[in-house]
Amino acid sequence: MTTMARRRVLTTALAAGAAVLLPFTLAACGGGSGGGSQGSSGGDAGTLTIQDYYNDDPGKTVWEGVYKACAQTAGVELNIVHIPGADLIAKVLQQAQSKTMPDVLMLDNPDLQQIASSGALADLSQWDVSTDGYAEGIVQASTYDGTLYGLQPVTNSIALFYNKQMLADAGVQPPTTWDELKTASAALTKDGKYGLALSAINTYEGTWQFLPFFWSAGGDEKDINTPEAAQALQLWVDMFKAGSISQSAVNWTQADVNDQFKAGNAAMMVNGPWQFPSLAESGVDYGVVPIPAPQAGEPTVSPLGGETWTVPETGNPDKQAKAAEIVKCINSDDNQKLLAEKNNTVPTKTAIAEEYGATNPAVKGFADLVPDLRARTGELGDQWPDAATKIYTAMQEAIVGGKTPEQALADAQNG
């Protein structure tokens, strides 16, 4: 799942002058769980503090099980601190200023660049943390200025879900290209039902949903005013104008999109694997395939979601070394598999992702994406939020405001 709404919190905190610097559910058992907010830059290396934003079950319990097992392996006691997602970055900024950072810190992967740029995180290479076997986008997301600051065990993205019965009744095959998507969406739009549901909301969530189309067409976040970006936006505009997508989609979150799909109001939807539990309860018989590419045989480039684990600069080398052991353990092959199974996510090592995807047809639609997943901060680093804002602004101006894609993108880029 993407925690796009948190981008606004981070951007506000940085803009306010804090210059010092959603969730999924995993394998491995010792220390207690606490709700305190103190970091642990002092003290001996026998007790560590780990901080994340997993406040709710089942994820909270699953993660705590993995943390405790890894602590036992490392021979340390563990104090587990859960911060509400919307408050995590503000808390980290405060901890960095007061030198009370936790020993192990979880960050949503797009946040790592901003925090690393402040000097608050330690270079993981000094503890021989290896990225061998990881997808390139995973490594890129946890790297800042050429230095590895985090490691991510599982990931998520978005793909195309389809209602098997609705497609069969219409004689439609799951689309693989943009032309097929337009044709299928139009054919499936009838009797008050829409062919496709997606989120075109004017938030980072809307940008997240548009990225597979934008990137796969050759769009570049450094300058969104390009023919390639216009081609991707034109596709969305065409489907909205054809009535294949509800006009209400400009206000829908991804949760709203899932509700429409579950209710049978849309034959297909763009969404992520975090919806698996809800869909299982609904009883909808669905399949998952990668989001269609512009042309047959081309790869779909989708955004990389999920969280990364870091070792903050606490000034205590003994505790940092133990913290690095915890990070390695969280990212072990066994824990990647367990995390994926328990949290409806996908392992970040490409070979494990491929093996895991072969066990579940729905998961395979996401596992197939892993080698080509792209980090949102890969090109712009801590400037990504500005680009994300420009992208969703252009989307809304073209879909709702009546501008041509070219004009909407030009205005957003220069605005």
What does this structure look like?
With 415 residues, this protein is α/β, with parallel strands linked by helices. Helix content is 43%, strand content 13%. The strands form 4 sheets. Strands 1-3-2-4-13-7 form a 6-stranded mixed sheet. The protein has a 4-stranded mixed sheet with strand order 10-11-9-12. The longest helix has 16 residues, at 59-74. The model is unreliable at 1-38 (pLDDT under 50).
Topology:
Blueprint: H1 5-15, E1 33-34, E2 47-52, H2 59-74, E3 77-82, H3 88-98, E4 104-108, H4 112-117, H5 136-141, E5 143-144, E6 147-148, E7 150-151, E8 154-155, E9 159-163, H6 164-170, H7 178-187, E10 194-197, H8 204-216, H9 227-241, H10 254-262, E11 266-271, H11 276-282, E12 286-289, E13 307-310, H12 317-330, H13 333-343, E14 346-347, H14 350-357, H15 361-367, H16 384-399, H17 405-414
Helix pairs in contact: 2-12, 2-13, 8-9, 8-16, 14-15, 16-17
